[in-house]
Amino acid sequence: MARRNDERRAALIDAAIEVLAGEGARGLTFRAVDTEAAVPVGTASNYFANRDDLLTQAGARVYERLQPDEATIARQQAGAPDRETYVMLMHELVDRISAFRTGYLALLELRLEATRRPDLRTVLTERVRADLDANVAYHVAAGLPGDATSVRLLYLAFNWLIVEQLTLPGVFSQAEREQLVTAAVDRIVTP
After folding, report:
1. Residue range 30-35: average pLDDT?
2. What global pTM score does this model have?
3. Helices and strands in the chain: count of H runs, count of E runs
4. How far does CA 78 lie from the centroid of its chain?
5. 22: which residues sit within 8 A by CB, 6+ positions away?
6. 168 contacts 180 by C-beta, under 8 angstroms
């Protein structure tokens, strides 16, 4: 029974992500989540203490789903610690995040909502900081070129590139986006 409840909870959180991406934070209600998840009305309210709980769990779930799979990690670890591998890693990263459009849009909504909800802000701040620290640690352990500042600058640059791609896809073509990713690595990461 616990496994079934975990699956139902995950489905409700995934539905919340879809609602956030499609309707924004103001559209995130238990009823909207129930409708999106195609479950009886009242189901979401049985799984989440309140709306803040749902928002917080949706934020955590987006990050879970944005993580690379084991095959991607293995491929990354098998690469040489050089500029070409770094460029490949960054292309994969931008492509993976862009492919989860609703998740990233939901995360943007959550960030905006965090400006008004201190508990959500705390959770997201901790999660983003942990993610940045993990990326820096991976970078150092893999012996990739550049330093911690390079990782942080690429994080900032690519976040906005992804926002452009997902919200105003006509600003940059696919070819321009690929050129920008390569150029960012070339200009920010020094050997």
Report:
1. 98
2. 0.86
3. 10, 0
4. 24
5. 102
6. no
